[in-house]
Design a protein that fits this description.
There is one protein chain. The protein is α/β, with parallel strands linked by helices. Helix content is 38%, strand content 20%. It is built from eight helices and eleven strands. It has helices spanning 25-40, 57-62, 67-91, 113-121, 139-150, 183-189, 196-204, 219-224; strands at residues 5-10, 44-49, 96-100, 109-110, 125-129, 154-159, 164-165, 177-178, 180-182, 209-213, 231-234. The strands form two sheets. It has a nine-stranded mixed β-sheet, with helices on both faces. The protein has a two-stranded antiparallel ribbon with strand order 7-8. Strand 1 (5-10), helix 1 (25-40) and strand 2 (44-49) form a beta-alpha-beta unit.
Length: 235
């Protein structure tokens, strides 16, 4: 196994499936099955999930809402997604813990690093909700921060595309995929991998990011076992 402890970053939009909004139960079930496969291989899995399928703080701010208020609403959206994912994982027979950066003691544990690491060592899937708990920071930044805190080997960014391209492959048929690329090259070429705060944090802590297509069955297992899938960003 190439990666023993992973931080899987999923966007909220990924949970919509083919819908325009909300959570697609079938997509959740598919993701839970993929995660169960890598747990069976002995991987330790932590997850950060976005909230864009329910609410985006930035969009709220663009309509005149207070940005801090909007970001707090976005954090609550990630908790809704976290609860949904937790339920789907438990339906697959997995043990899980949901930890929140904002105290919600009736539905989740508070984020405590040592406790999170202990859960992972015991084979539980740990879902980190509510971002970093601070406004103005994205769930990409939360994913990077948590990955560093728990000593993850890699951040796996599950998307709709199978890696990083020279241009948007959905718009440009001539776009070419990178198998590996350095942090420096991503900066220089202006490629969109994660927001700059998250990206810089990864680079400074020498934490690789692997971007891959989460919607292709078996891909997560291929990544964890070391097959060439997606695009690896490292120093």
């Amino acid at each position: 196994m190439k990666y023993k402890r992973i931080l899987l970053k999923l966007s909220g939009e990924a949970l919509m499936g083919d819908q325009q909004f909300g959570i697609d139960g079938e997509r959740l079930k598919d993701y839970a099955h993929e995660i169960q496969q890598v747990i069976d291989e002995g991987a330790q899995v932590a997850i950060v999930i976005g909230g864009g399928n329910i609410f985006r703080g930035v969009q709220g701010a663009s309509t005149g809402m207070d940005r801090v208020q909007g970001d707090h609403m976005g954090m609550l959206a990630t908790m809704i997604n976290g609860l949904a994912l937790q339920s789907a994982l438990e339906n697959e027979g997995l043990k899980t813990r949901l930890q929140s950066a904002i105290e919600m003691d009736k539905i989740a544990e508070p984020f405590i690093r040592r406790r999170a690491v202990r859960h992972l060592e015991k084979g539980r899937v740990v879902i980190f909700g509510a971002g970093t708990g601070n406004p103005y920071f994205t769930t990409d930044t939360a994913a990077t921060l948590r990955a560093i805190e728990i000593g993850a080997d890699v951040i796996l960014k599950g998307t709709r595309v199978d890696g990083i391209y020279t241009a948007d492959p959905e718009k440009d048929s001539n776009a070419v995929k990178y198998d590996t690329i350095s942090f420096q090259e991503v900066y220089e070429k202006g490629l969109n991998v994660m927001d700059m705060t998250a990206f810089t944090l990864s680079r400074e802590n020498d934490l690789p990011i692997l971007v891959f297509d989460m919607n292709k069955p078996g891909n997560l297992h291929r990544v964890v076992t070391g097959e060439k899938v997606g695009t690896l960003v490292n120093n």
